[in-house]
Amino acid sequence: MEADGLCFARPRAREACGVFGIYGPGEDVSRLTYFGLFALQHRGQESAGIAVSDGKKLDWHREMGLVYQAFDEPTLTRLRGDLAIGHTRYSTTGSSTLANAQPMVGKWKGGTVALAHNGNLVNAIHLRAKLEAAGEKLHATSDSEVMLRMVVREANRTGDVLAAISACMAQWQGAYSLTILTEKAVIAVRDAYAVRPLCIGRLNGKATVFASESCALNVIGADYVREVKPGEMVIADRNGLESRHVLPSPRQALCVFEYIYMARPDSVIGGRLCYEARRGLGHQLAQDSPTNADVVIPVPATGWPAAIGYAERSGLPFGEGLIRNWYVPRTFIQPDQRLRELGVRVKLNPLREALEGKRVVMVDDTIVRGTTKRGVIRLIREAGAREVHVRISAPPYKWPCYYGVDTSNRSELVAARCRTVDEIREEIGADSLAYQSLEGLLEGVAVPRRKLCLACFTGRYPIPIPRDVKLSKLDLEERAWRQTKDSR
Ligand code: SF4
Fold first, then answer.
1. Closest approach atom of ligand 1 to CA 13
2. N or C: which end of the chain has fewer CB within 10 A?
3. Is 50 exceeded by the pLDDT of residue 8?
4. Which domain holds residue 475?
């Protein structure tokens, strides 16, 4: 998708964060966490951090940048212990600064606690206001700090961190998959709707591992055990593994975007391999939106499995028509429209030999605001393609996310701006354009509707959004929309 490093300014759907945790006496937990974070790098590239405990005290390190930039050998050697948590961050609530890097660490009267968060609280501003009214001084701007401060306050009050986490879970509204570290335990927590993924693994028959995605278990050689359940707290300590069902779950609402592009294709989420879900989306798309063409090409890299699925079901040959430069950073920013369109070439180069004289089907997973897609289509035409037919493996997305994915505001979403698919087709300059239907999405992903959040396609939010939060976001969008119109 355009989000996959192809968009050149802020507005796009972006990954949220990756969390990791390990209780592994006798293991090199800081290096295992470091490797785990590498596997979760796609979920966040702004900062990375690890907190470890040796059973008596916590130590930690957080830095801006990619995992390999955040840690060096002396730092990993310093971070000695038996249990650890880690985090890769992409800002959703809160700005991209070191103060917002995670794990967040706080002291309570019985010790220290560190917290790593993936998701977004919808009532964070209310909780923050309550904390501030109670005299708390907050140093960061993220909802994760609010969560940590609440746990610390509650632990000071009750003298029990686990009871404090349970009490806080009852107050947190929204999406949160957490790993939490104390001196003696690693704790994994998932909200009542289980919007963001979190799984449990076993390493060498004794260490317990928690990770946002199963690919992080694979990387360190751990076996997948199961998912953390909606509303569940799982505690790993010297007594083994304890599960507490803290919150009743009205239903699961896993973010469908995890299947469409967000998770790594080699991750299993909810029992479904993401690669297979994406291939299934391609099958469904080919069935519902066939076209006469000579070759099917993906927009690398997230469009790949859906393009393979499209080729398989349509019987058309699969080919590589675009070669990606992997060294362009994801935050590659172009200041204006002209440079933004030129910037597409920095990222992608068309393969003339594969495209010349051909009718091409280009498969991708979303269109965000259309600028990049228009640039890519132009490149394909310049390379000699006769026709360019665009097939999108997800429905048009029109609604903002409040649960931890930094989507564009509505004024920038091409699907919200244009009234018809044909208007979008015209805007991006394709010969034909088809999106997946909502039914096709569910068929292709093959996960029951009742287990998914589909709100950015339907506008129906499984976790209620406080009215003032919704209004303030819509108000900001309305203003941006007017500015966009005025500047035309
Ligand atoms: Fe995912 Fe969209 Fe739901 Fe956000 S609103 S959790 S991006 S499906």
1. 7
2. C
3. no
4. 276-447+466-487
